[in-house]
């Protein structure tokens, strides 16, 4: 080592002077001494270096310890501050020395006061401060305390804390050091426990007051325990029930609970349910919805039974009501349709023969109108009894609704159906109905559809029987009509029924189109526009449907008011969107069906739509056929009066088709009379038709009303109308129906009307 060599050199230099004085002779003894000194110095140096090395190692260890201590302190401070526990350290006087972030956030920085003991902070509620002080005193004496206390934080509201105190930094011989203060927020836990206690109490009360039968039975089905509700329900005391087999109280041969469990032992659920009937002490049936649960603790079965006697009776009643008519107690429409489907399938599979009878009472409305609905209900009951009395065995009789009945008869061929139909008509006709000194005669229209393996769907069979019934009505009522596939009249009615769905689809898909036909002023020569709105229906293939088919279908099946609503809404919308057409318009006529006139919802819609439209009401004319107006005189007068108050004009269409209506004309508030085309088309060659048109026109003029002649198809007819001073003319001579925008454009350009040259062209244009 360099240091060691240097030290030896130094020692040698120190010894050289003594060697010089004493001489060489004395060199050997001195060298021995020097050698000893060198050895001693070597030892001392070695010890010195060892001490130095130990000091260096100690210093390094101390530095590492300081670094570890710093890291530990930083880690402790991090854990202390980031801990979710609320931790604080207080001194011997109770002042807070340090508190982590969780404690500060919970108490709120404004609540912590460093100038006073912590038990004097204002956040503690009730006697919390005193409790903390006493716990602090015990902690100073070495006791560990833990308790709950309430506090109020400005940020977090009322809280419940679990507080713990423990002394730190003290030995066994002296008091002193600091106190560790720990707090756990128990608010959520206590709230949960409180809710659980409340729930438990609530469930216990609910269980005690629920009408539930509780029975525990052993492996032999003997009752081991029973609640009071079960005893009251069955009418026995608990002592009378205990020890008896539960099957002794069944009404019928129901299997015991163990058998139910054994039958379902492969099922993963430990609970089995069933409904069965018990018999109480009075012998009455008690329906129980029973839940069977196995209790492995005592190898017993727990039977939980709910009294469903009322529900079972209600279910039976509802099942009856679901399949029966409430008034006549016959089957209802739903049951009849399901039964019809069943017999059609049976006829297809077994070649059996059935017949469906569709019975519609004639003029039944007379009974309701003259004697009241109570009398009508009694009449329907009597009809039901009559039909039940003559129906063959195994027949299904149903009231479909209103005054319509139906019957399904098995083993019924054409001849038997004919005979039974005549028996039904004669029975109804010969049995009069008496109500409070009033006597009414029954009659019916009867449609029959034979059912065999060639029959179609239930809907087709039902519709065909309905069609046959309508045919019987058209033939004069009080008669029957048997459906034949080649019957032309029935084919037409079937086509109408097909159009029912097509009409609904066309309305939803807006496939109805507005057409219009010009109405020409005959005498005045006005250049303003006057036309009647017509409606056309385009099918899914883009072809026009014949108006002579879909309009009668709409009338027959009560869909006309839907078409009228469409026409009114779209006509007013188009006129409002075409200001030039509206300015040039004198009068726009819109047809309304008789059904619409009697539909309260449609009438409200009509009034509201006209009032809110931009089209002036005085430019609108609402047309009603004479037949519809006379058939519903009071409704017609009411509707016309309301529309005239708005400002609309009223036209009576097809006037003259009912000659007896002349006397009613002065009662109906109309402005225009449209002379039926059946009189107009031949006035140039038929004196009788000419006289009729002249009479209608003069009568109308006398009453201050204007006239429109329909079906004007030739110049001779137009000349006659001028001579008669008829106000307006309408027909193919004036103009053919065409789309509304096209007609308005044509009238605006003053184009001459296109007159058909041949009768075939006229017919083709009409179609």
Question: What would you note in describing this structure?
Answer:
The chain is an alpha+beta fold and 767 residues long. Helix content is 48%, strand content 22%. The protein is built from 27 helices and 28 strands. Helix 14 (458-474) crosses helix 15 and helix 17 runs parallel beside helix 20 (600-612). It is elongated and about 185 Å long. It starts with a helix and ends with a helix. Residues 16-22 and 751-767 have low confidence and may be disordered.
Brief sketch in words of this structure:
This protein is of the alpha+beta class.
Low-confidence blocks of residues:
16-22, 751-767
* End-to-end C-alpha gap: 133 Å
Class based on secondary structure composition and strand pairing: alpha+beta
Helix content: 40-55%
Percent strand equals 15-25%
Evaluate the radius of gyration: 55 Å
Oligomer: single chain
Mean pLDDT: 83
Q: Rough shape?
A: elongated
What is the number of strand segments?
28
Largest sheet: 11 strands, mixed
Number of DSSP helices?
27
SSE topology:
Blueprint: H1 2-22, H2 27-82, E1 86-90, E2 96-99, H3 101-107, H4 128-140, E3 145-153, E4 157-168, E5 178-185, H5 187-209, E6 212-217, E7 223-226, H6 228-234, H7 238-241, H8 257-263, E8 271-279, E9 285-295, E10 300-307, H9 309-323, H10 333-350, E11 354-361, H11 365-371, H12 373-390, E12 396-401, E13 404-410, H13 414-430, E14 433-435, E15 438-440, E16 444-451, H14 458-474, E17 480-482, H15 488-508, E18 512-518, E19 520-521, E20 529-538, E21 544-545, H16 547-556, H17 560-577, H18 579-584, E22 585-592, H19 594-597, H20 600-612, E23 620-625, H21 626-631, H22 633-646, E24 649-655, E25 672-675, H23 677-680, H24 687-702, E26 706-709, H25 715-724, E27 728-729, E28 738-739, H26 740-748, H27 759-766
